[in-house]
């Protein structure tokens, strides 16, 4: 197998299991080893657990890294790394080996049926603040390889799109299981904190990017004028403003979204900036308050979570959760864990979801989720998700 030069460190034993990587356009973080684990718990107690962790004298970096699962009531997986590592001290194989798309769960047809059932429920929902207004429904694709899949090779391939944040996050596994990671390339910032300044940059309302400049311009204009997509987007911005408002003395968001493009997608995006009233509110607390936003869950949160449980035939695990870091000062970055795969042994599970509102059309949501698989599909070189 040919080797690519100087891409990512191995740790001292050459083990990749505990390597964490978060490469944002403006900041690169890589760590290796696990010094101590944060006691696991739900999103609501994350801020308190992190504060307790850092208030206890200990050796090792003043840093916690890891992932929150989609379900805010399920256990998260954060740990203090052994070392912050300098990227570029090792080599990686250039290839992921032979991969085939093995199974869709659910099939495109079953996904369309679930979207149709969801639309019917949204249309039947009574008017009022508590009524179900949006549900994000996802589907999965299992890919199999001829040999164990190296998550860092996949991340390097995903990193060829400079507009996204690539990540590799070790996931908890049972004692008899092979190591597992969440590997992805997200365009979406859940929340970032530096001192008192808080930034969130949600996306919702999407179209496939074609690569043809005139057609992409047309799609961009259509997206920025689409009542359905602006509504889907507004619900996310409102939820984030509602979450941040009690914590901020100043909070600003432009009245209309702008366009954010990745190599494969066009998204409506809004950059929200706030100033914390209390500088002791950490990025972990903020992530715990905001997650899951209606970009990945729906509105209102609890009925949307229930609809997802009822309509999706799989457990999301850490897909549509959050990945990131927080330090002892409370600063940190948390990204929405989308455009990703759970990698374990010879297999990976890809996930893609789309926001459903009362006027969504099932066939268009099938296409939107197929387009959202493209980032991963391009990286692993599988052209057609239906090919087996
Ligand atoms: C849920 C996903 O993406 C989210 C849903 C979007 C939408 O519905 O338009 C856009 C970006 C993300 O917030 C995903 O990629 O799996």
TrEMBL record:
Keywords: Isomerase
The enzyme's E.C. designation: 5.4.4.2
Domain Chorismate-utilising enzyme C-terminal, chain residue ranges per copy: 110-372
Entry keyword Translocase: no
Family (UniProt): Belongs to the isochorismate synthase family.
Gene Ontology biological process terms in this record: salicylic acid biosynthetic process
GO molecular function, one term: isochorismate synthase activity
Protein name, as recorded: isochorismate synthase
Catalytic activity: chorismate = isochorismate
Keyword Isomerase set for record: yes
Enzyme class: isomerase
Organism: Luteimonas terrae
Lineage, opening ranks: Bacteria, Pseudomonadati, Pseudomonadota, Gammaproteobacteria, Lysobacterales
């Amino acid at each position: 197998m040919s080797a690519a030069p100087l891409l990512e460190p191995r740790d001292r034993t050459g083990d990749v299991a505990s390597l964490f990587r978060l490469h944002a356009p403006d900041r690169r973080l890589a760590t290796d080893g696990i010094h101590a684990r944060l006691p696991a718990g739900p999103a609501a107690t994350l801020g308190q657990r992190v504060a307790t962790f850092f208030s206890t004298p200990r050796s090792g970096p003043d840093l916690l890294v890891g992932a929150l699962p989609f379900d805010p009531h399920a256990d998260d997986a954060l740990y203090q790394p052994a070392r912050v590592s300098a990227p570029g001290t090792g080599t990686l194989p250039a290839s992921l080996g032979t991969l085939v798309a093995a199974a869709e769960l659910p099939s495109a047809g079953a996904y369309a049926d679930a979207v149709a059932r969801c639309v019917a429920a949204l249309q039947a929902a009574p008017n009022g603040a508590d009524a179900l207004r949006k549900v994000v429904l996802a589907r999965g694709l299992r890919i199999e390889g001829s040999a164990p899949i190296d998550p860092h090779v996949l991340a390097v391939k995903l990193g060829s799109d400079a507009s996204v944040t690539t990540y590799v996050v070790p996931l908890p596994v049972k004692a008899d299981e092979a190591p597992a990671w969440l590997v992805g390339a997200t365009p979406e910032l859940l929340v970032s904190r530096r001192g008192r300044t808080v930034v969130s940059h949600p996306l919702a309302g999407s179209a496939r990017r074609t690569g043809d400049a005139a057609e992409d311009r047309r799609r961009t204009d259509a997206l920025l004028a689409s009542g359905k997509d602006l509504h889907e987007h507004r619900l996310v911005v409102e939820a984030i403003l509602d979450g941040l408002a009690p914590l901020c003395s100043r909070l600003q968001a432009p009245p209309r979204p702008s366009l954010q493009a990745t190599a494969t997608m066009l998204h409506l995006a809004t950059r929200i900036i706030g100033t914390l009233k209390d500088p002791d509110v950490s990025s972990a607390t903020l992530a715990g308050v905001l997650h899951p936003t209606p970009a990945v869950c729906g509105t209102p949160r609890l009925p949307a979570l229930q609809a997802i449980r009822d309509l999706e035939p799989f457990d999301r695990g850490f897909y549509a959760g959050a990945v990131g870091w927080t330090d002892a000062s409370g600063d940190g970055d948390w990204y929405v864990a989308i455009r990703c795969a759970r990698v374990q042994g010879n297999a990976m599970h890809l996930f893609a979801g789309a926001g459903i509102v009362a006027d969504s059309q099932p066939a268009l949501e099938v296409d939107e989720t197929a387009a959202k698989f493209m980032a991963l599909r391009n990286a692993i070189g599988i052209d057609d998700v239906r090919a087996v």
